[in-house]
Amino acid sequence: MAKPERNWHNCHRMSSRFAALREWYRSSRLFRWAVDLTAVIAIITGIGLYQTRNHPRGPAPQYVMTSLENGSAVSFATYSGKPTVVAVWAPWCGVCKAESDNLSRARHWLGSRANVISVATQFGDVSQVHAYMKNQNVDYPVLIAGDDFAQVMHINAFPTLFVLDSEGKIVSSVEGYTTTAGVLWRALWAG
User: Phi and psi at residue 115, in whole multiples of 5°?
Assistant: First the structure.
C-alpha cells in the first residue's frame, strides 16, 4: 500500500490563515478584547466547575436544620415550590461578611419569585451566629446546621452558594464570593 503524499499546499494555506488571524488580532482592538474576554470567561468557568465538581446535584440531601427564628426543624423540602438560593457561611468567614449585603439585596429584588436563605455552620456557639447577624444586618432566614453539614454537602470553602429549583433539586453551586447579579442570575435561571 502506497503512503499518501503530504499536501504541502494545504499546510501552507493553513499557515497563511493563522498569520492573517494573528495580524487581525494585533490590529483590531475590539477583536483582541473579544478573544481575551472569551479566554478569561473560559478560565473562570473552568475553575468554578473544578471547585464544585463534588457538590451534590439532583435531589437535595434530607438534612434537618434548625430555624434560628423560631427553633423549628427545617429541611430543604420546606422551601420547594419556587427556586431557592442557599448561602452557606461561617461566622468567622470574612468573605461571607462581604457577601451578606448581596444576599439581602437579592432577596429584596427577587421578592416572592424565589427564596433566599442561609445556613450557618462551623461555629463554636450560637452567640457567634447572633453576633454575625447583628453586625451584618442579616434580614434573610438563617438556619443552623451541625459541623457535619459541610461534609454532607462536600463544601471545601466558605461562602458556598447552592441553588435549588422549584422541585428541590440542586441545579447549581459556587464556592467563594458571589455578586448580587450572580445571585439574581442563578435564582432566575433555576426558576
Answer: -90, 140
Alpha-carbon distance of 123 to 40, in angstroms, equals 36
Other beta carbons within 10 angstroms of residue 173's beta carbon come to: 23
CA–CA separation, 14 and 87 (whole Å): 50
42 membership: H or E segment, kind and range: helix 29-51
Kindly calculate the radius of gyration of the chain based on its CA atoms and give it in whole angstroms. Answer: 23
pLDDT at 9: 52
**Other Cβ atoms closer than 10 A to 84:** 24
| Residue 135 backbone zone (phi > 0: left; psi -120 to 50: alpha; other: beta) | alpha
pLDDT tens digits, one per residue of 136-179: 999 999 999 998 999 999 999 999 999 999 999 999 999 999 99
- Is a pLDDT exceeding 90 seen at residue 47? no
Three cell numbers written together for 16? 497563511
Does residue 35 contact residue 28 with C-beta atoms inside 8 Å?
Answer: no
Q: Which residue segments constitute the domains of the chain, with CATH numbers given?
A: 8-51 (no CATH), 58-190 (3.40.30.10)
Taking the model in full, what pTM does it have? 0.80
